[in-house]
């Protein structure tokens, strides 16, 4: 099978998945118990006011009509109006997405760099104190609840050693001047991103260490060492390179987090992001907001998976040949 | 000796500085003029731990609405903090389904009321930071009635009245026998939200169920998912449940909650009480032509409700607000609304720095305000911002809770004939002169007319109950507005004096739902948005997710002299 057919087939799968998700997305919130208007009305609302609210929300239409309207709007990337704010969901997501991406990309970059480096380092020093210490620390931070570590850091650097901001992405109000504003943003990023790195680096380190140890036991590593290559070269150019493909898969798998955000981090550090938005929308039964956020996440997952498939197809021809059977 | 000479003046300065702070805090005369600070910055901090840290380290000066006992204790331990506590309009209650046997029997509900140990519950679950409440109108309301039938904690009395009414204990099962059927009472449940969502409510359900079991009533707690619970309440598929209401100083909610016309699917009469005498009184209350009739009806309704116990009211959460007294003073505790609620105009006007004048006050916003459109704003966080940009026609006296003139220097409540033989209410507002919108346009009776008609014609849900009965608005002159209602009710007074919209901005707004006035610049006045009010502060900036900045309105009509 040629690359273009492989690509088309993958694209077709992606569209089907997206359509299924889209439909589930519509049905799941309406199947949930409860009434969306209940989260808005108070005892002073008259029956006329409640009926008007339902009409405005489009909840007085039959479900099938609601569904077709929903699908039609999605094609125009119109995610509707949030029930709770009456604002376009697209606008609300646009406000939050840059913050989520900034936090995610910073955390993710440092987590992967530190995690993979620590994994390689500990694999090369298997059984030593540093291996045990780093592995133990990684396991500990991975195992304890995220919010616990984050609250601990909040208390430590927010109160006992009050050197870091504890909420938001900027000072209120921010300083004047581009450079000062940039530094202010970095300052605000340290605690949430730092805590994310502490929480997540362990899993990357452990995964890399284990795959590296497996690779280090292979014949080609023995051969490389027998050839007298320096240990550093063996590690970086032979062992690490061979374990990179599964790590790349992991990276692609984690990328949709760029859109979905981290609910706990966003809540604890008052970070105005998509994760908290999604959680609030579900809690308030704000269908359009929740549907919009889920749709965005689903889109990100499908695109990242598609990208991973394409990259795999490029780097490993066996995959695209294997798709339709050997030719 | 040299050291002593140096230390003595330093010590005197320190003592003076400390005395100055403590003497000034909370000792400012409350005046109807202000504001006394140049700007308010409202940082948005959502996590409760972060809020506490921010207050204690001085990032915020006003920390409104404390609820968790642990946080309250921490704030109390801070020597720079002052905590104010006021009765609010919150009411936590146990509701019975009076449509179902055996809970249709008054005596059974009264017996359950006797086993509710409010003081112990408040001490155990809330460390004493709640106020016991048995009445159906909170004490902060002028319509609260103290002298009502009460069922104080007394399990022995509960047993006695049950025994007397024929609910004797079945020796075989240990459960009381229903005198109507001669069989042991069926198992009943108390619905509460889950421990994850509302731990104290769930625990309270368990405590009351155990207290009922102790007098041989087969009652079990049943925590459940909140939306599921609301569905079941709408369909009247419950025995008992526990929830809270946030009421207001106007007792018309009694009509919503207990009039038989509201005993319909998803209606607010969830206990399903149907009492002809009560209905008549509630109608008198809802359509009262004046305050005297309303007061009499509210009193009578409270007596009947207290006797019949469709709810057993348990407690009320007070407003607890913390202030940095080392930096600010002049905050005004107010029953019903606390010291830091937007409805409390007095704190907004009077709060000021302990030292110097003006300055920046940092006031916590615990959630995103999201929408600064007065037509669609629904959450308290949105009104925490908007409430400081607008003034009302009336205000509330913080001590007596009486209505006092504000933008209206006086008003009359009269009647007219919408059609022959029928009476309607007409409210006449006489406005103060010299009030200006923040963009310098004069505020006149035409603004009242425009707003009421805009809200009515556009069917804005939040205001439908306020304007649906308005027949017309007349403006005999710039400073007089007459609002005609199709029916007679004293409460129309509170329905015609809300937040007003500037006509020159709103007349072109086709869809109020999607209008985002805080994001659009004012067409003529630089620095203003299209959120234009006439209150003490101007919306200067809303940085989504970060903070809101309000600046002192330099043309406020009640600026300090």
Can you count the helices of chain B? Answer: 17
Measure the end-to-end span of chain B: 51 Å
Quick one: how many beta strands of chain B?
21
Q: Sheet bearing the most strands of chain B, described?
A: 6 strands, mixed
The coarse overall form of chain A would be globular
Q: CATH topology of chain A, anyone?
A: MetI-like fold
Number of domains of chain A: 1
As a percent range, the share of helical residues of chain B equals 25-40%
Low-confidence stretches of chain B: 1-25
Tell me the number of strands of chain A.
0
Q: From the 3D coordinates, which CATH architecture of chain A would you assign?
A: Orthogonal Bundle
What's the mean pLDDT score of chain A? 83
Distance between the termini of chain A: 7 Å
Physical arrangement of strands within the biggest beta sheet of chain B? 5-9-4-8-6-7
Low-confidence spans of chain A: none
What would you say this structure looks like, in words?
The complex is a heterodimer of chains A (327) and B (561). With 327 residues, chain A is an all-alpha fold. Chain A has a single domain, classed as Orthogonal Bundle (MetI-like fold). Chain A contains 14 helices and no strands. Chain A is globular. The model of chain A has no long low-confidence stretch (mean pLDDT 83). Helix content of chain B is 30%, strand content 20%. In chain B, α4 (106-114) runs antiparallel to α6 and α10 runs antiparallel to α11 (291-308). Residues 1-25 of chain B have low confidence and may be disordered. The chains are: A mainly alpha (327), B alpha+beta (561). Chains A and B meet through α2, α4 and α6 of A and α2, α8, α9 and α15 of B.
